[in-house]
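Project outcomes to date are best conveyed with an example. Our students and postdoctoral researchers have been running inverse folding experiments weekly, and each run begins with a structure described purely in tokens. The record below, which covers 334 residues, was selected by the lab manager from last quarter's runs and is presented without edits.
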């Protein structure tokens, strides 16, 4: 089995010498972006998870899928301090297994997020168009679907770590992430991986979310013509549109670049200028994809009416309880 060192992806050595300065810039880019993501990502997703578990019980609002989406985001966010340490120190002292786990969690978060955004869009669309189905829907159905998503996505993301391996160099125990060598695949395996990642992980979900948006827009248009438009229709449309927006902003750049980047790592693209451009954009696309950890909470905070209602009701009840307690204490003293 042969390996390609991703720290020197281009074949032409004279071309690779121009990448040294970019290596430093890339480390700084990862560091700053992960620092920016970590605190708001941790706080927003932790609060969202607490509220979703504690207060929201309505089964027709894709709550189970939102919980799983939040868990996927938190898993990636909690691995960011180790990534930040590596890009600042340029040394990985935590062992190969933890390196592979952090590397795996990044792609698991990306594709689990895509899958649950699709689930949210489908369910909101289906329940809007088929309200009688929503009445008979059970929460355990969502749990079974979520479990299946985790299994399928977990297995499908395994090639990302199987393609990476420690080399036999002396710096074996100090490298991780982008500095790990990549296995050289045969043409059939490379093409299969590219097609699976693009079709199952990108084009398929994009088509599904787009179709859900179209159905809801069409339903809203028909109801407006009949003057039967309801708030639930508009809310469902806003939610699906936000799912579409998060999907397009976070994941389109990465998947556009993914095909080209894999071709560079497999020496299919050997042109110096093209290889540099593709390699330069790769970390940028990964950083943009990581922003989904901070953007996904928009779905909970701004579009789920139940979320805001329950949160305000809880705050009001706590305030009322404190006021009543103060009044009773005051009366007792008098």
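After processing, the design step wrote out the following sequence:
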């Amino acid at each position: 089995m042969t390996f390609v060192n991703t720290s020197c992806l281009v074949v032409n050595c004279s071309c690779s010498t121009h990448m040294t300065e970019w290596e430093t810039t890339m480390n700084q880019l990862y560091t700053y972006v992960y620092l920016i993501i970590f605190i708001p990502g941790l706080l927003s997703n932790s609060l969202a998870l607490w509220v979703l578990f504690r207060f929201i019980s309505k089964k027709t609002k894709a709550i189970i899928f939102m919980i799983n989406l939040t868990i996927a985001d938190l898993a990636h966010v909690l691995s960011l301090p180790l990534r930040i340490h590596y890009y600042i120190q340029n040394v990985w002292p935590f062992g190969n297994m933890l390196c592979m786990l952090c590397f795996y969690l990044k792609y698991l978060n990306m594709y689990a997020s895509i899958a649950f955004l699709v689930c949210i869009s489908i369910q909101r669309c289906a329940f809007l168009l088929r309200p009688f189905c929503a009445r008979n829907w059970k929460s355990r159905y969502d749990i079974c679907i979520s479990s299946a998503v985790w299994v399928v996505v977990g297995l499908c993301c395994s090639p990302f770590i199987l393609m990476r391996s420690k080399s036999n160099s002396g710096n074996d125990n100090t490298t991780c992430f982008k500095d790990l060598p990549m296995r050289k695949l045969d043409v059939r395996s490379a093409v299969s991986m590219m097609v699976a990642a693009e079709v199952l992980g990108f084009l398929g979900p994009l088509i599904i979310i787009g179709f859900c948006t179209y159905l809801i827009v069409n339903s809203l248009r028909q109801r407006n013509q009949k003057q039967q438009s309801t708030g639930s229709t508009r809310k469902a449309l806003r939610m699906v549109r936000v799912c579409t927006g998060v999907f397009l902003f976070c994941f389109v750049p990465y998947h556009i670049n993914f095909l080209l980047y894999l071709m560079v790592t497999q020496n299919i693209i050997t042109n110096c200028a093209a290889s540099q451009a593709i390699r330069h954009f790769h970390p940028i696309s990964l950083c943009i994809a990581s922003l989904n950890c901070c953007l996904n909470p928009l779905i909970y905070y701004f579009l789920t009416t139940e979320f805001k209602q329950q949160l305000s009701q809880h705050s009001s009840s706590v305030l009322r309880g404190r006021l009543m307690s103060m009044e009773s204490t005051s009366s007792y003293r008098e």
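The beta strands are 3-5, 181-183. The radius of gyration is 24 Å. The training component of this project remains on track.
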